[in-house]
Amino acid sequence: MSIVSRLIVIVLFGGVDLLDVTGPPEVFSLARRESEEAAGYEVVLAAESLDPVTTGAGVRVLPDVTFDDLSTRSIDTLIVPGAVEVDHRRRVHPLTDPGVVARVQQLAGRTRRVTSVCVGAHILAAAGLLDGKRATTHWSTAQQLADDYPAVEVDADPIFIRQGDVWTGAGISACLDLSLALIADDLGESVALNIARQLVMYLKRPSGQSQFSVPLERVSMTRRIEDLRHHILRNIGEPLTLADLAAHAHIGDRQLTRIFKAELGMTPHAYVESARVEVARGRLESTDATLERVAASCGFGTVDTLVRAFRRRLDTTPTEYRRRFRTGGA
Length: 330
Description:
It is a single chain. By secondary structure, this protein is an alpha/beta fold. Helices cover 44% and strands 15% of the residues. The chain is built from 13 helices and 13 strands. Strand 7 (84-86) and strand 8 form a beta hairpin. The longest helix is centred in the last third of the chain and has 19 residues, at 268-286. The chain is elongated. It starts with a strand and ends in a 5-residue tail after the last helix.
């Protein structure tokens, strides 16, 4: 089986947020184990020199390569983390060192896709890579990003935003969500979901928003229920009544309900609806299918049922959700 080589470069500089640097390698390292494609992600930390870099947390990190070492290499993904300083009034200010900005400009020219984490968006903006694009950053610096770079359309709500080959993420921990989204883009949602499960974390979608994100399902301790969960997802467009599920699991209705409540924290009916909503979200984000087709394919039957489920679980409508979170290019 051939290994696809994807060079991931994380930019290092003084004061950088530590989690922005260490989070993505952990996520990408799991891709090889979880993917049948045996994806060859090579993650390197790049800095001006090979001297240790002191992060904002005070932890020193050793670069793998210098920026000059990358001058002849083609980069798949450039990840630009952020750094901040806090003034005497405890106000947060993003750092945009001109030398770092210049290096990012150089590297971006040889990169398939460019990403920023948290206030790293300010570095991308200073490099001119966000002009005319919609972008996000940490909520505390969003207004400053908009004020300093009027050519950038700043939206502080989403967890991350994709605009063609440029991705921006909000919040320090968004480096994990962003890495999962990049892997999903390369290898598919199922691989990203498996990695998220290994990390025991939420799976965020591209353009997802925190209050609209559904927790990754807790893994049941009962093999029978785990098999049933996968059966539900494989047959999401079918009726999936309580009687149908109990028959598939070879147990009684009451026993099934009791196990679901104990192990997954909800009734079988509530679980099925949450699964239908989650699948519908993906189709609204990534396809142009009509609401009628989405409702039918996800087992809701009618658009009215789809709308009621979205209002109940996400406090919005399918139309509004698609308008706000449709995945796409610039």
